[in-house]
Structure to design on (224 residues):
């Protein structure tokens, strides 16, 4: 998963996020990567962040892209503000994040191992002496539940399936929450300075696009 974010920047830098995402997508596809999906946070034309899910050797493909990117566009600053203090530089960050390895496929009967076990606990003569309790294991995730609620093995097995589904759903939600937390943290904490690349706006048949700047001297001097 690759995240492109503007942090809490204004519309100018959100446009930068959209254009930067397009450039990155183009570069990934040229290296044989397949962009599986593109998620947008905010207005599609002025996104706060964009997330790409990519198939292939992603770490190799994003070499030279991860980190802070700067947009040098004094014309945008002049349009927004008058005077010598008009802003000319905006920053966006690109980060690769691991996708949690959580099996989200529906539970299949062949993926479940059922074991008949004896019920446990106090109860004297009311405890069923036969092995009617059930231990169910979802083999792909190694998630296990034990059920001895009923005196019928079939009823315990049906309940075990339901509890397994609930346990796997909880794992999915936990993984999604952790992933969103990481994205949120990067959104607010990426470095706004020391860019690895500087971009300028250029006119194109489709409107505007990014062009990597040849102003290499700016790389060391750009700061927040």
């Amino acid at each position: 998963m690759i995240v492109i974010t503007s942090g809490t920047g204004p519309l100018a830098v959100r446009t930068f996020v959209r254009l930067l995402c397009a450039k990155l997508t183009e570069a990934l596809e040229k290296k044989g990567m397949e962009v599986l999906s593109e998620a947008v946070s905010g207005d599609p034309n002025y996104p706060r962040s964009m997330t790409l899910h990519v198939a292939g050797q992603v770490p190799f493909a994003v070499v030279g892209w991860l980190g802070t990117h700067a947009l040098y566009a004094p014309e945008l600053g002049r349009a927004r503000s008058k005077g010598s203090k008009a802003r000319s530089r905006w920053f966006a960050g690109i980060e690769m994040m691991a996708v949690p390895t959580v099996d989200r496929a529906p539970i299949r009967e062949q993926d479940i191992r059922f074991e008949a076990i004896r019920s446990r606990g106090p109860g004297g003569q009311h405890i069923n002496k036969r092995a009617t309790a059930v231990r169910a294991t979802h083999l792909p995730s190694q998630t296990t539940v034990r059920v001895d609620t009923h005196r019928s093995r079939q009823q315990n097995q049906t309940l075990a399936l339901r509890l397994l589904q609930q346990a796997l759903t909880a794992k999915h939600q936990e993984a999604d929450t952790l992933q969103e937390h990481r994205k949120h943290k990067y959104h607010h904490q990426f470095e706004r300075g020391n860019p690895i690349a500087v971009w300028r706006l250029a006119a194109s048949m489709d409107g505007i696009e990014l062009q990597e700047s040849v102003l290499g001297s700016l790389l060391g001097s750009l700061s927040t």
The chain is about 30% helix and 30% strand. The beta strands are 2-5, 34-43, 46-55, 67-72, 89-96, 112-117, 133-138, 143-147, 197-204, 207-212. The first strand starts at residue 2 and ends at 5.
